[in-house]
Design brief:
This protein is an all-alpha fold. The chain has five helices and no strands. It starts with a helix and ends with a helix.
């Protein structure tokens, strides 16, 4: 009987931890998506200084969450986001609208993929 209680407790803790990490990732990716949308809006109307400021806010948010992300996510995904953020920063600094929007689209897709990859589905289990 004691073994069953221990097993049930461990399973409940694992499921709770999985749910909590999924909620955290979903919230964080949603926040980053919103920040990137504001950067995109600024770039579209060619307000480069505002776009740079908004990107700095997004990068700060990313750096603040980076410790938890590195625990929960694949490091390749984190590296891809870091690289694309740096590319976007450079494209904004040289005021290249098409390259900036391309990098933004890539970043938004990467965050969507992270959220989808962490979702509890049969596809992600097997």
């Amino acid at each position: 009987m004691r073994t069953i209680i221990t097993i049930v407790t461990i399973v409940i803790m694992l499921c709770g931890g999985s749910f909590a990490s999924y909620q955290y990732i979903t919230t964080a990716t949603g926040t980053m998506g919103t920040l990137l949308e504001s950067v995109e809006n600024s770039i579209t109307v060619e307000k480069w200084e505002k776009a740079h400021e908004e990107l700095n806010i997004a990068q700060k948010k990313w750096e603040d969450n980076n410790m938890w992300w590195s625990i929960l996510l694949d490091h390749q995904a984190i590296d891809n986001i870091d690289i694309n953020l740096k590319r976007l920063e450079k494209h904004i600094s040289v005021r290249d609208i098409s390259e900036s929007l391309g990098e933004l689209t890539t970043l938004k897709l990467l965050f969507e993929q992270i959220s989808g990859a962490e979702m509890f589905t049969l596809e992600n289990i097997f």
